[in-house]
Fold this protein.
Amino acid sequence: MNDATTPSEVMLAEHRTKRLSVAVWILAILLCASLLLSFVVIRALSTAPSGFSRLSSVEQIRSASVIAFADWHKSGSTLQCIISEIVKKAPDTAFYYKVGDEFRRGTQRLSKGADYGDGQVLFFTGSPATFQSAVAYRNGRITAMGDMPIAEFRDVARRSSAR
């Protein structure tokens, strides 16, 4: 101990050091809690189902900014989802696919005995168009929409584009 340092100064310095140490630990715990909470919130928002799937078939057609048909093209053990027609595209909507492009999110690995239909109807919302849902079609009907005939589907899409 230094001659100029009194025992009360040492005790005061120890007390301050202890308080500072506690404050640093509290800040570290708060930072960890904040990071954990941020992760949980971001994860929940990114996996939360959109309200789009709860809409009726006609409401889905009306609210989509882009609707595309995609056909299956077999490539080895994969069914590639290739855009064959853009049925609806709202004006000024940024959509980064064109007819003939593969929509990789729709591509499927072949499973023995599985029925994939003839292709898929792809629904996108917003601008830039964000993928929302895909439903299969087969034999001229969209199965997940109560077997709606494709001709009627096109009519509804055309009418909703004219609005």
Q: What stands out?
A: The chain has two domains: 1-48, 52-161. The beta strands are 66-75, 78-89, 108-109, 119-125, 130-138, 141-142, 148-149. The longest helix spans residues 7-47. The two ends are 87 Å apart (CA to CA).
